[in-house]
Every structure is written in C-alpha cells, then in structure tokens.
Amino acid sequence: MPFSLHAAFVPSALQMLGVTRKLVDKAESWCAEQGCDHDALIGARLAEDMLAFDYQVKSVAVHTRGAIEGVRAGVFSPDMSVPPATFEAMRAKLDHAIAALEAVSEEEMESWIGRPMRFVMGERTLDFTVEEFLLSFSQPNFYFHAATAYDILRMKGLPLAKRDFMGRLRINRD
User: What are the domain boundaries of the chain?
Assistant: First the structure.
C-alpha cells in the first residue's frame, strides 16, 4: 500500500503537539518548583531577534491545525494574533489543535492531493500543491517551533532530555 498523505503528516503533527503540550506542563511545574515568574519563562527567547516561548508554542498549533484549515480554504496566511499569555491558554490552543488533527480522516486528506494551495504573506505569495505545502512548509515549521520551544526551556535550565523532545514514539506494539 502506498504511503498516504495522512500517514506522512498527521501522526508526526500529533507527536509534536503532544511533545509541546508536555513541555508546557514541565515549564509550569518548573516555575512552581523554582519560584520562577511564569512571564519570565513564557517571554523567554533564544536570541534577541527570535520570538519567545509563547510564540513557539502557538506556532506548533498554527502549522498543524492551522495548516489543515488553510488547506481546506486553499490559502494559508501567517497567524498574527497575540500568542497565548498563560500556560493554561497554551494547553488549550494545543488541545484544540490535537482534537482538530484527530478528526481529519485519511480519505479527506487523500482527496486533497494535487490541489493547488497558496501561501500569502502581505504581497508575497507562494504556490504549492497541498502535499508540497504540508510536507515542505508546514511540517518543517512545526518541527522548528517545537524544537525552539524545547531549546528555550533547556536554555532557561529546565532538566529536559532528548526523550522530552521525541515524545510518544510510534513503535510496533504487536
């Protein structure tokens, strides 16, 4: 059986959404243990010219659930809304994305293959097919933002390991 678009995108998206959700949980617990102000961690960034932890978390949801919504509409534009300002709001955004991805059927996704898809940012546009958009634009983006969220927390001193980034592996459980 050929590899489906659903199999190539949804399980990885769900894995990174789960990873990011656990990172948010660990960040909140660490703040409580350390007596750290939540805002100091939520607003932390790796470098001055990079966006903060809250934006990284938001972007994992944007490039998973938002990508699917964009595909359905035939166009995707960056989400310029303010990132969630609390750990609770971050979890809600990620939970909403998880539910949306779990609801996408393989049949629906396979019907999108070959359809045109447009990325629009101001005056700039990029044209893709749906599968090119999901696999060469959205997928690298959700990995990048999940890794950056992880890196910010490591930089701030949270005791995280590679397993915290890998999340739930899809191993053969027979």
Answer: 19-155
